Amino acid sequence: MTKQHITTSVNGENVEYLCEAQQTLLDVLRDELGLTGTKEGCSTGDCGACSVVVDGDVVCACLMLGAEAEGRTIETIEGMATADQLHPLQKHFLEQASLQCGFCTPGFLVAAKNLLDKNPDPTETEIRFWLAGNLCRCTGYDKIVRAVQDAAAEMRGA
User: Fold this and answer.
1) 3-class secondary-structure state, position 19
2) How many domains does the structure of the chain reveal?
3) What pLDDT digit, counting tens, does each position of 40-83 carry?
4) Domain-terminating residue out of 79, 97, 112
5) Helix (H, G, I), strand (E, B) or coil at 21
6) What is the CATH number of the domain that holds 101?
7) Residue 127, phi then psi, degrees to nearest 5
8) Whole-prediction pTM value?
């Protein structure tokens, strides 16, 4: 099989990789680029564990082909924190105990960050709607929503 040469931006860095035509973006991120924070949950786009941001929109990396990333801008969970500081969402997820096993957490964080990038002061209903594509089997969603609300307030300086 012939592999395709892809050039894209991942977490602000220009990257190149080779991928097979049927290889998903999820597989490329994990297997070719070593970015294992994005998780494979259902492989059908139902759970949100593989959520990444592509050109400003949340997408399920399990449903996008790696070849479709050509020339696009991709953000993953690895791009949230700096070398010495957690993103406010990550900090508040920890403070609110918004995770148990942690498997779904990267997808929730990526989706929540995308929401706050677009709407710095969302209502509880808007948060719940925005995160509806992400499933958690361990926790209730209330702590997750509170963490997003607290992070939004901190980021606004409230």
Assistant:
1) strand
2) 2
3) 999 999 999 999 999 999 999 999 999 999 999 999 999 999 98
4) 79
5) coil
6) 1.10.150.120
7) -65, -50
8) 0.95
Q: In what order do the strands lie in the sheet with 4-10?
A: 13-19, 4-10, 73-75, 51-54, 57-60
Counted residue by residue, the chain has a size of 158
The verdict on 93 and 65 lying in the same domain is: no
Tell me the residue range of the domain where 71 lies. Answer: 4-79
Contact between 112 and 93 (Cβ < 8 Å): no
C-alpha to C-alpha distance for 30 and 34, rounded to whole angstroms: 5
Determine the Cα–Cα distance for residues 48 and 68; give it in Å rounded to an integer. 19
Where do we find the tokens 């995308």?
114
Q: Which two tokens stand for residue 62?
A: 């399990």
Amino acid at the residue 94: L
**Tens digit of each residue's pLDDT (9 = 90 or more) over 98-124:** 988 889 999 999 999 999 999 999 999
Q: Which residue bears the tokens 């105990």?
A: 97
